[in-house]
Amino acid sequence: MNQHITAPAEITDSVPIARTEDVVRLVDLKRRFGATAALDGVSLTVRKGEILGIIGRSGAGKSTLIRCLNGLERPDSGEVFIEGREISRLGERELQPLRRRIGMVFQHFNLLSAKTVEENVALPLKIDGRPRPERLARAAELLQLVGLSEKAKAYPASLSGGQKQRVGIARALAARPALLLSDEATSALDPETTRSILALLKDINSRLRLTILLITHEMEVIRSIADRVAVIDAGRIVEEGAVWQVFANPRSEITRSLLGGIRPQLPPEIASRLAAGEGAETILRIDVAGEAARGPLLSDLSASVPAPLRLVHGGIDHVQNQPVGTLFLAVPGADTGRLAQTIAFLKDRGARVEVLGHVAGPV
After folding, report:
1. pTM for the full model?
2. How far is 147 from 170, CA to CA, in rounded Å?
3. Residues 93 and 198 in one domain
4. Which stretches make up the ABC transporter domain (predicted)?
């Protein structure tokens, strides 16, 4: 499989200037199914040229949201603007040209098995009534973009999962959309192939300045390519912001839970020994980001608060080129004054500090 994307110089899809820099704008969107509120007042924008990731658990409202965006579902109330035009009350005939402004990439590829790769890619143009030479020329351009020119005459059954998804991406780009919707596009792929597909989407976003909205339940996908993230839970957006800022300081419990698999956590053997009250050592969780994570925080702390502090776990990562770290410190628990000094020093340096508990002996 091609790991590096090489696009021909002539592919520079120019999306007509929208009436607004917000390619998508949702205003107080609500949708109920019986007693269940699938969407409960969602307001959201996706700006031109950005990658927005929407993440949530199963049943959070992601699928209903994406169906409202492409006009397959009508909200009970609220407004859906695509390139400045409100679409939620349009009839099917009026929706058709607008849907061509939206490309869709699916989890299970949705390729037609009886058609060749190039025919699958060209299908949206055939439906639109474009002449065959134009369709095939566009398919050839896009297959070169996704690294599958040699597979033009092949059938989907002969392709790997990653290759099928590349064909799906090429097909989604055929009509030169303003918005690409990716609905769990990497969930059925292995980790290596996932990285390759995400790199392709990032490359397409950069080359074509294409706006992408990612629906996912995997925080690693968000971390890899998104500019902003919105966390949805029980039909509501509970948190939104730049990816690195949300990673550094998750405010909601659901966000902290979703981040649990990719951020350092206190090792179970230490967590199992934590107790309330007093102990030989106090365990602190320290979250730092940006400037607070760039400096010699621990050495400065040791110089300012003389005490046998110990780093028991953690590390510094980089998200959107910003350092984001979580550290777990063991602080002597008997001296409450030193503990207060330690916490005050860390907070003064911009760190977020949480006392997790106490342990009876060294960890």
Report:
1. 0.85
2. 10
3. yes
4. 24-259
* Distance (Å, whole) CA 166 – CA 148: 8
Q: What is the pLDDT of residue 306?
A: 79
Residues 156 and 274 in one domain: no
**Where residue 283 sits, what CATH number does that domain have?**
3.30.70.260
- Report how far residue 254's alpha carbon sits from residue 232's, in angstroms, rounded to the nearest whole number: 9
Number of domains in the chain: 2
Pair 44, 163 in one domain: yes
In the three-class reduction of DSSP (H, G, I as helix; E, B as strand; rest coil), residue 293 is classed as helix
Whole-angstrom Cα distance, residue 61 to residue 30? 10
Residue 148, both tokens: 């599958």
Range of the domain at 230: 22-249
Say which CATH number the domain at 210 has.
Answer: 3.40.50.300
pLDDT of residue 93: 87
The tokens of 248 are what? 């550094």
Asked if 338 and 220 sit in the same domain, the reply is no
Q: How far apart are CA 251 and CA 80, in angstroms?
A: 27
Whether residue 106 is contained in a domain is answered as: yes
- Contact partners, residue 22, CB within 8 Å, separation at least 6: 45, 46, 47, 48, 81, 84
- Is it the case that residue 201 has pLDDT exceeding 80? yes
254 token code pair? 């659901």
Residue 16 per-residue DSSP state: P
287: tokens are 């979250």
Tell whether 162 and 279 lie within a shared domain: no
Q: Which residue has the higher pLDDT, 334 or 72?
A: 72
Strand order in the sheet with 281-289: 310-319, 322-332, 281-289, 352-359
32 with 166, same domain: the answer is: yes
Please indicate, yes or no, whether residues 226 and 312 belong to a single structural domain of this protein: no
Enclosing H/E stretch for 174: none
Residue 241 and residue 64: Cα distance in Å, rounded?
22
Q: Residue 220 and residue 236: Cα distance in Å, rounded?
A: 22
Amino acid at 221: V
Mean pLDDT of 289-314: 87
- 6 within a domain of the structure (yes/no): no
- Mean pLDDT, the chain, whole residue set: 88
* Local structure of 33: helix, strand or coil: strand
